[in-house]
């Protein structure tokens, strides 16, 4: 097996596609995408077409994590909505094929921005891209979940309370050393949870610019990717996820906008982005946004702690990157405490 294929049995995938994917014809070449820490993702290249395969990672996994079957379901359900997604081709839940569940989807020919400052484009393009982020986010939260068959996609009840409990358990299960900042943040969030206001929409769970594919020459969003954390929940959590990333340091590691002259770059302020979202959804205000923002920092800290644990256990998708990310857990926790204080 080649280095690029590292955790994928290429011969097994090729045999499976020849049987289950009409029109598939090899030979098959595989290239592993370097970004993404949760579910290993591969580009499948044949003489006739390019596809994408996304699988659960190998090894022992946390319960309910890496749910690629849910990713497949939600993207297929969104195919005819205003939320752009890649076309889903097939889902394989037979672990005997490559050792874990995987799905195959359309390859989107577009561009991806890892850095929200988008240094390779001009101010007008940056403005258009971020406006598309806002448009798609509002569209996502206006999807009729019952009409698209996702009414049972998440449990009922207070979303923040449920998620805080879930991610606290996930964090404790992947804890490698005591981090006082995380303990303080968990305790503070438990005390700050607002009453449930009844809003119940589809939520992406990790909505940010690097999980989106845009037109190569324009600003149109062609697909939203990485739906592993999607569920039925509170829409403000997705909005807070965007603002959370922007509050981080700029550059390769933080991928944020802290200290950046946004106006000079054609980028909106946090408040302008929130107001545009409210206009699109017909909202007059957003209550308890600081709690949603704090929770976003907490959840991301818990996620990267899990990434670090997988790296230490030897089954991370990108071990070197995973070890680097793990150092940011205390930083995210401190940001979470600061957000809660307003």
Q: Could you give a quick summary of the protein structure above?
A:
Residues 30-253 form the Aminoglycoside phosphotransferase domain. The protein has 342 residues and is of the alpha+beta class.
Structure description:
This is Phosphotransferase family protein. It holds the Pfam family APH. The strands form 3 sheets. Strands 1-2-3-5-4 form a 5-stranded antiparallel β-sheet. It has a two-stranded antiparallel ribbon with strand order 6-9. A two-stranded antiparallel sheet has the order 7-8. Helix 5 packs parallel to helix 10. The chain has 342 residues and is an alpha+beta fold. It is 42% helix and 11% strand. The N terminus is likely disordered. The protein folds into 2 domains: 104 residues, Phosphorylase Kinase, domain 1 (2-Layer Sandwich), CATH 3.30.200; 218 residues, Aminoglycoside 3'-phosphotransferase, Chain: A, domain 2. The chain contains 12 helices and 9 strands.
Q: List the uncertain runs.
A: 1-5
Q: Please give the CATH class of the largest domain.
A: Alpha Beta
* CATH fold node name of the largest domain: Aminoglycoside 3'-phosphotransferase, Chain: A, domain 2
Strand order of the largest sheet: 1-2-3-5-4
CATH homologous superfamily descriptor of the largest domain: Aminoglycoside phosphotransferase (APH), C-terminal lobe
Distance between the termini: 52 Å
Structural class estimated from helices and strands: alpha+beta
What is the helix tally?
Answer: 12
Taking Cα atoms only, what radius of gyration do you get, to the nearest Å? Answer: 20 Å
* Strand residue content: 5-15%
Known CATH architecture of the largest domain: Alpha-Beta Complex
Name the shape in a single word: globular
Approximately how much helix is present in the residues? 40-55%
For the record, the count of structural domains works out to: 2
- Arithmetic mean pLDDT: 91
Give the topology string: H per helix, E per strand: HEEEHEHEHHHEEEEHHHHHH
Q: What about the largest sheet?
A: 5 strands, antiparallel
SS elements, strand count: 9
């Amino acid at each position: 097996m080649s280095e690029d294929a590292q955790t994928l049995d290429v011969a097994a995938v090729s045999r499976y596609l020849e049987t289950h994917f009409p029109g598939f014809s090899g030979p098959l070449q595989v290239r592993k995408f370097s970004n993404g820490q949760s579910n290993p993702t591969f580009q499948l290249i044949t003489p006739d077409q390019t596809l994408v395969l996304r699988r659960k990672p190998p090894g022992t996994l946390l319960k309910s994590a890496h749910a690629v079957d849910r990713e497949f379901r939600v993207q297929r359900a969104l195919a005819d909505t205003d939320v752009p997604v890649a076309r889903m081709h097939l889902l394989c839940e037979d672990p005997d094929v490559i050792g874990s569940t995987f799905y195959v989807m359309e390859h989107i020919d577009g561009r991806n921005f890892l850095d929200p400052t988008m240094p390779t484009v001009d101010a007008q393009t940056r403005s258009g891209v971020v406006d598309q982020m806002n448009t798609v986010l509002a569209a996502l939260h206006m999807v009729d979940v019952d009409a698209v068959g996702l009414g049972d996609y998440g449990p009922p009840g207070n979303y923040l309370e449920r998620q805080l409990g879930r991610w606290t358990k996930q964090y404790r299960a992947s804890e490698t050393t005591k981090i006082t900042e995380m303990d303080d943040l968990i305790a503070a969030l438990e005390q700050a949870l607002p009453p449930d206001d009844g809003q119940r929409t589809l939520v992406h769970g990790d909505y940010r610019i690097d999980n989106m594919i845009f037109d190569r020459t324009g600003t149109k969003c062609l697909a939203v990717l990485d739906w592993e954390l999607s569920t039925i929940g509170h829409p403000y959590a997705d909005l807070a996820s965007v603002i959370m990333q922007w509050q981080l340091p700029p550059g390769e590691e933080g991928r944020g906008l802290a200290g950046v002259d946004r106006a000079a770059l054609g980028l909106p302020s946090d408040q302008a982005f929130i107001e545009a979202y409210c206009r699109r959804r017909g909202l007059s205000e957003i209550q308890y946004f600081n709690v949603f923002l704090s929770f976003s920092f907490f959840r991301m800290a818990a996620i990267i702690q899990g990434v670090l644990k997988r790296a230490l256990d030897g089954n991370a998708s990108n071990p070197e990157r995973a070890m680097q990310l793990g150092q940011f857990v205390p930083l995210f926790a401190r940001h979470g405490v600061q957000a809660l204080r307003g």
